[in-house]
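ARCHIVE CARD
Drawer: 12
Card no.: 0347
Subject: one protein chain, sequence and derived structure
Cross-reference: see card 0346
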Amino acid sequence: MTQRQWSGHVFIGMSVDGMIARADDSLDWLTGGAAGEADDPGASGFTEFMASVDHLVMGRSTYDIVQAMGEWFYGETPVFVLSTTLQTDDSRIRIVRSLDEATALLDDDGARNVYVDGGRTVRTFLAAGLIKTLTLTRVPVLIGEGKPLFGALPADVRLQLDEVKAFKGGAVQTRYTVR
């Protein structure tokens, strides 16, 4: 088996109780000012993070949410959307039907640093051992119910804490390396 030349990286905002969206996919709690300074792509490190990645893989739900926002945050970065049902003429994306197809295309494209986004997609990549770093920005709000970032995994995923940042407004960002 050939060792992968790329690694997956997560950069995501979440509520203190671990939700990345409400049950209806709403992000009003994240974009409504609760994030404070962390909502600024430059201050939060998102701009720098995007400059460090050369590919992005997201799930269908995440793609739908981004489309509804009306702003494309990824510039010219190649974006793969994991979906078995999506049909679109959006030339900014490539639809992939499985994790195996996504990893083969990343290998073929010569990917090095891959941004992995979306709850199910992050969990799938974590379970497959394809995530190297997790940057989690916890916004100071409890939403109670919604879509969690983490769920069942086939085994424990051990993490090493690399950095903690506190932002004006109370958001806290932690960066971990998967051990």
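Annotation on reverse: The first helix runs from residue 28 to 31. The domain at 7-178 is CATH 3.40.430.10 (Dihydrofolate Reductase, subunit A).
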